Sequence to fold (264 residues):
Amino acid sequence: MYFGNKIEEKLNSCTRLVIIDDELSTGITILNLVDNIEKKCRLDRFASVEAWSLLNGMGGSDKEKYKSKGIKLVYLEEVNKPEIENHASTLDTNVKIIPSGNNMPAVITSCIELNCGDVRCGVDVPGYTKELKNKLEKAADGIMCNRYNAVDVIGTEECIYPAVVMADLLSHRFPDTEITCHSTTRSPIVAGGGALLSGRTGLASLYDSERDTYIYNMAEMHKDTLAVVVTDAACSTEMKEQFAVSLGDNVVRVEFVEIGYCIS
Fold:
């Protein structure tokens, strides 16, 4: 949550605190956020402190922590997370995790640096989007999509928007080339069985080689595909090569566009 130096001023002008998430598993993330807010502002000054979510899979002890802090839980659906996880583990969709490829594709790296600051810590949105597009346009100058049967632009975990911008730029430059866009994720979603996700590939995170991530539908890629990976991960050549191989043998070239943030 970003307010810069005005966080206390912003909090003191509020009468109600509502924190929204898509799903609460244990609720620890929101509790940590509330604890940090409490260091800047007394919680009892708010008429209400609430945690809103689409799904709530918290157990009884987790809910008690919220009750003890006076945080109201608001959600659309309560789920039994252990029961769902057990059920998911029994599903047989006839789709196995696709193994890594056998061939090492060509791996190329280019870099752009954004002067607007680290987007994860808060940036001016118009300034960020303008600079990002300008820098990605220059990076796109060296990407020859029309040499390949298809192009797949891949974001990495939370670094998704830059990949969408790059895919849009390339689509306008090469309207006759099939260009798709998606991202790696930490979510191990069950694939197959008529779902939109037909195949799942496991690969190490570019941010942390010990962390498992997944990418879906890579088996659907055309032969002779170019992958353009747009990432703000500071990773080694070895990590990039492992990532490239994991994309499968249909990918013959991987161009990494690395985003760096200049912090003034």
User: Anything to note?
Assistant: The mean pLDDT is 88. The CA atoms of residues 26 and 62 lie 6 Å apart. Strands lie at 16-24, 48-56, 71-78, 106-114, 150-156, 178-184, 200-204, 212-216, 225-231, 251-261. DSSP finds seven helices and ten strands in the chain.
